[in-house]
Amino acid sequence: MTNDILYSFRRCPYAIRVRWALLICGIKVEIREIDLKNKPLDFLNKSKTKTVPILIKKNSEVIEESLEIILWALSESKKENIKLIYFPDKKKENIFEIINENDKEFKFHLDRFKYATRYQNSNEEFHFRKANKFIKRWNELLAQNKYFFGDKPTIADWSIWPFVRQFRIACESQKRTNYFEPSIKNWLDSFEKNREFKSLMYKYELWGPSSRKNYFPSN
User: Fold this and answer.
1) What backbone phi and psi angles, to 5 degrees, belong to 201?
2) Model confidence over 105-157: pLDDT tens digits?
C-alpha cells in the first residue's frame, strides 16, 4: 500500500469534516468514493461500523471514527505547529464538549428535521426547533469571536460546520427563512467560500475493485 486509503461519500458531513482536516493538514490519500446504498464488499469487510468515513493506514490499521481520523491527520501533518493551532491544549475539554454536543444532540434533531419521513412518528417542526436552539447558542459564541474559541478555527469548527451546512440545506429545501443570524452565517461562509472548498467537494467517480486509483486532494 503506497498511500493511506479513505473510504468516503461526498455529501456525508462526517466525511466532509475528515476531508477538510486532510486538506488543511496537507495529507494526500487514496480516496474511494462509495455508494452508501450499494456498499462494495471490500469496504464491508474492512469496516465494523459499515459507514463512512474510514481510513485504512499504510500498516493496514483501520480508523473508523471521523474525529479520530482528524486527530490522526493533525499528528501526521508536516506543517509546523499545526496541532497547536487547531487543537490547543488549553481548549481540549471545551473542544471535545462542543463536538460531542454536535454529534450526539444536534445531529439527532437535524436528521429528524431533514429526513422526517425516514423516522416513524417524527415531528418535523419539533426537531427543527430543537436543532435551531443549538444554532442560536452557537451564534452567540460566534458573535463574540470569529470562530468558536477565538480568531482562528479549531477542530471544533472543522467538525461542526458541515452539519450546520446540512441544516441550511434542509431549511432552504423547505423554503424556511430567517434560520440564521449574521454571525453563524458569516462563520459558515468562511468555509464554503474558502478557496479549498472546490477541492473539498470534488466529485469523484464511484470506486470499485477494478477502478483506477483516485487521490485526495485531486490536484
Assistant:
1) -105, 20
2) 999 999 999 998 888 888 999 999 999 999 999 999 999 999 999 999 999 99
Q: Which three cell numbers stand for residue 137?
A: 447558542
Assigned fold of 84-192: Glutathione S-transferase Yfyf (Class Pi); Chain A, domain 2 (1.20.1050)
Which pTM value belongs to this model? 0.96
CB 1 within 8 A of CB 61: no
Question: 181: which residues sit within 8 A by CB, 6+ positions away?
Answer: 136, 139, 143
User: Yes or no: is domain 5-83+201-216 CATH 3.40.630.30?
Assistant: no
What is the C-alpha to C-alpha distance for residues 146 and 190, in angstroms, rounded to an integer? 9
Query: Can you read off the three cell numbers belonging to residue 90?
Result: 488549553
pLDDT tens digits, residue range 13-61?
Answer: 999 999 999 999 999 999 999 999 999 999 999 999 999 999 999 999 9
Q: Are 35 and 206 in contact (CB under 8 A)?
A: yes
